[in-house]
Write a structure and sequence with these properties.
heterodimer, A: 266 residues, 2 domains, 4-stranded antiparallel sheet, 10 strands, globular, B: 308 residues
Chain lengths: 266, 308
């Protein structure tokens, strides 16, 4: 589904701040794959997502999504087929618009009629939104006319997740999307994530700093360091792996200890 | 009576026109979160184009022509900020400056233009009946109809997919970047719609006043902002319908306050100061309310404390 070949990006080339953020990334994700990504501070995890999402264009290499070369496709055009969630729950929704309007926006943009600029939310759409909201089990289906700004961070993140997956995207990029939530809410959002991804078999990448989560969720774990993927674990090997094994393998792969001040080892 | 019927009617007529400019600012300032300072020039452009088209013998074409001219000016402002990376405030100022010359050119390189004695949309509508009630009120009825149509259309528009995208653009830039909305496109459409309303308002002013002057648009942005803020203070920022209604009511209130000042024999020289004071008062109102509420709370607390 997703294929990165030799993706390289250097920020501030030729200056003292020159930083090779991505260094020849090769990655192939099969349709329906769910990969978790861990790594040190500044290892390039978010930068990798930005390259896939088109926030910037890579200096070298190519990005293929579903067989289509999207290396130089503008960000807003690829986001039709991409769902993205950020750590900050405030980033994914428009606070002064109602829940229904936010959903309508997400639904209409990903829908089939890309040029129906003047289409409006129909009664059937509304009923569909209600059903989808009910699945979140947060009581949001009864608050559809309320502005999103009134929701809690967890509710907003769950709503963002729904908006990103209501029309299943080709790939879902989760950038520590539960890191800013309290543990109970984080668990809930994580459960919803798991259900939604499994239901639609969405190809997913998730950055996390929780090592336990990295092994528990999905079917593949990638570790990054200094702009490279230093470790790629899947299949049998991953099943029997403990957090301790993972850290040891990282040390062997990167030649140093994993240093991330937010890492959770439990 | 404080205000005569005629004064009130004139105030409402001007209020209806100013409502259109306030609606334009509602779109650019409240919804898109862009301070569009090209309003003054665009307003003048509207009546320069409207008056010229009317003089050329096309009274019905005046309104659409003025709207088109306004939309074009909005497009230029949007182009500067979305494609050329000019800061939005600066883009407005640049366009405003440029429009001064454009307006002079449209008016045939003269700083004022009179349409006395020419058939205008207003005079044609007025001529439909010779009854006194009709000749007195036809202008207000026509302006009210245009305003109502504009308000309804704006309200409907912001519920469509394109409208929702425009609202999201002003509401959460991060979200827009991550979804398939092209902010350059939505800003352009938003500013075109907003400025077409400004142009329409300018055209209507010219028709009502039967003359236009190159400087008549000066200070328009302040006036419209005042109307917008009065409305927002009174009606809150909840539903789109209420916000649009608030904007219109705000503009009418503003004109009525001005009419009151006129009736109280405030010299014309002081008018800009009166306008500025109204704007300042309107903007300060929410903060003032908060302060009063806080003082009340403190007072209540003190009383409770005295009891213990």
């Amino acid at each position: 589904m997703l294929k990165l070949t030799g993706v390289t990006k250097t920020f501030g080339p030729g200056t003292v701040n020159e930083k090779r953020a991505l260094d020849g990334i090769d990655l192939h994700l099969a349709p329906g794959a769910f990969a978790t990504i861990v790594g040190s501070n500044g290892a390039g995890k978010s930068t990798l997502f930005h390259a896939i999402a088109g926030v910037f264009f890579p200096d070298q290499g190519s990005v293929l999504l579903g067989g289509e070369d999207i290396t130089f496709k503008p960000e807003h055009r690829r986001s039709r087929e991409m769902g993205r969630l950020f750590q900050d729950p405030m980033k994914g929704t428009a606070p002064h618009m109602t829940i229904e309007e936010n959903l309508a926006l997400a639904y209409l943009r990903a829908g089939r009629h890309q040029h129906a600029y003047f289409s409006r939310t129909s009664r059937a759409d509304r009923a569909f939104f209600r059903d989808q909201l009910a699945k979140l089990d947060m009581g949001l289906e009864d608050r559809m006319k309320q502005p999103v700004g009134l929701l809690s961070g967890g509710q907003r993140q769950a709503l963002t997740l729904l908006m990103a997956t209501m029309v299943p995207p080709k790939i879902l990029l989760l950038d520590e999307h539960t890191a800013a939530l309290d543990p109970a809410t984080a668990d809930k959002v994580l459960r919803i994530t798991r259900e939604v991804v499994a239901e639609h078999k969405i190809t997913t990448m998730m950055v996390t700093h929780n090592m336990h989560q990295a092994l528990e969720l999905g079917d593949r774990t990638l570790m990054m360091d200094r702009g490279r993927i230093v470790l790629d674990i899947q299949g049998e090997e991953r099943k029997n792996m403990t957090v301790k094994d993972l850290l040891e393998r990282f040390r062997a792969g990167a030649g140093k200890d994993l240093d991330n001040d937010r890492i959770l080892l439990s | 009576m404080l205000l005569s019927v005629v004064t009130l009617r004139t105030a409402l007529e001007m209020g209806a026109i100013y409502s259109l400019v306030a609606l334009a600012l509602f779109i650019s300032f409240s919804i898109l979160n862009i301070a569009d300072l090209s309003t003054d020039g665009c307003y003048t452009l509207g009546f320069a184009v409207g008056a010229t088209v009317t003089l050329a013998g096309h009274p019905f074409l005046a309104l659409p022509a003025a709207m088109l001219a306004g939309a074009l000016s909005g497009f230029v402002t949007a182009f500067l900020q979305t494609k050329l990376g000019v800061e939005s405030i600066l883009a407005g100022i640049i366009v405003n400056t440029g429009l001064y010359t454009v307006n002079l050119a449209v008016m045939g390189w003269s700083s004022n233009l009179s349409i006395f004695g020419t058939d205008t949309l207003l005079s044609l509508v007025k001529g439909l009946s010779s009854a006194k009630v009709w000749t007195d009120w036809s202008t207000l009825i026509l302006l009210g109809t245009v305003l109502a149509a504009a308000a309804v259309l704006v309200g409907l528009f912001f519920r469509t997919r394109l409208g929702l995208s425009i609202r999201a653009t002003g509401d959460n830039a991060d979200m827009v970047r991550a979804s398939s909305i092209d902010p350059a496109f939505t800003i352009t459409v938003g500013l075109c719609v907003a400025n077409s309303l400004t142009g329409l308002a300018g055209c209507l002013t010219g028709l009502v006043n039967k003359s236009c002057d190159i400087n008549l648009g000066t200070g328009m942005v302040t006036v419209a902002l005042a109307s917008l803020i009065i409305g927002e203070t009174m009606f809150g920022r909840f539903s789109m319908g209420l916000r649009i209604l608030g904007t219109i009511v705000g503009a009418c209130i503003y004109r009525i306050v001005i009419a009151l000042a006129l009736a109280a024999d405030v010299p014309t020289e002081c008018f800009k100061l009166v306008s500025a004071l109204i704007v300042a008062a309107a903007i300060a109102m929410p903060q003032g309310r908060k302060l009063i509420a806080l003082q009340r709370q403190k007072l209540a607390r003190r009383k409770e404390g005295a009891k213990c």
